[in-house]
Each structure stands twice: as C-alpha cells, then as structure tokens.
Automatic annotation (TrEMBL):
Membrane topology according to the record: Single-pass membrane protein
Coiled-coil blocks: none
Taxonomic lineage: Bacteria, Pseudomonadati, Pseudomonadota, Gammaproteobacteria, Cellvibrionales
The protein, known as: DsbE family thiol:disulfide interchange protein
Listed transmembrane segments: 6-23
PROSITE patterns assigned to the protein according to its UniProt record, in alphabetical order: THIOREDOXIN_1, THIOREDOXIN_2
Location(s) in or outside the cell: Cell inner membrane
Amino acid sequence: MQRLKLFLPLIIFVIMAAIFFGVERRVQTGDYDPMALPSALVDRPLPSFSLPTLDGGQLSNAELPDTWFLVNVWATWCPSCHFEHPFLVELKEEGVAILGVDYKDKLVPAQRWLDEKGDPYFATLFDKVGTFGLDLGVTGAPETYLVDAEGIVRFRYQGALDRQIWDKVFAPRIAALQGTVEGGDSQ
C-alpha cells in the first residue's frame, strides 16, 4: 500500500494527460468546439424586459423589430468587445439590425464609447447590474444572439464577431431564417 502512494502522483498525471490529449484530438478533428456553449434560450422566446437605454429612453420587447435581428452583449471593460466593434459598425452599414446590451458597465464611458467608435445599434439597453444578462444566460462579453421575427432566440455565439465567423456561422442561419419566412409566405 505504501508503494502505491508513491505512484499516485504519476497515475494522476497520466490520467490528466490522457484527458488533455483526448480533448486536443477532438478539437483538431472538429468534433469539439470550445466556443460552442449550450444556451437554454435557443428555440425559446427572448426574455421579457423593460430597460433604460443609453440615450435616456426606455425599451421593451413590444418595441423590437418584426424581422430577424441580433442582440449583442458588450461592455467598455471587455477587451474582445473593442476588437469586435468595428465589424458591428460594418454590419449596421450592411443593414443588419442589432440591439446592444451594455452589460454591467458605467453609463458615461459607454455613451462616450459609442460617440467615439460609432454606434452600430438601433438601441442600446443599459443593463447596469446584469439582470437582463442573467436572464439571457450571459457568461461573459461579448455574446451575440440571433433572434427571429417572432422573437425566438435561434442561436447564441460567445466571443468576438468578425467577417470569417459571420460568413461561416451566422450567414447560413440567417439565410435559413429568410428561406423559412419566404417559403412560408409563398404557400
């Protein structure tokens, strides 16, 4: 028994190494995506809300677009959000409707951010204490949700968006949403 205790650290190391290499192999073969975190909201309605906006207004679910749109959770304290922001401005120029959620942030720095870097959002909710973020299931910023015309969350992406991710991950899902709507209208 005493000898077994001597080999216990080695046994634990071998087990941990096997787990690590197993996950690494799954990442390389595409079987495992560390960014693909499940969301309880997918295929469920966007949570109800009535929150202040950064421009001093108030916004609720009733005032959301009747077409697909994105919900982008961001904050001035988030380094990845700084990287993602110029691409969101591009998306707005392409006609993509984006609802911003300023998550656990301070009002004045958030307003200054949008004034200086451009405002890609049709509205920005001010979620000062993170209550709406909790309802969304936010695990960190940035996170982006694809919401359909009926207000149902169809997809959640955690991490910064760029053109490559947009084309590979979001564009096919949006095309499918538009195809469903167009296909449903033609019958």
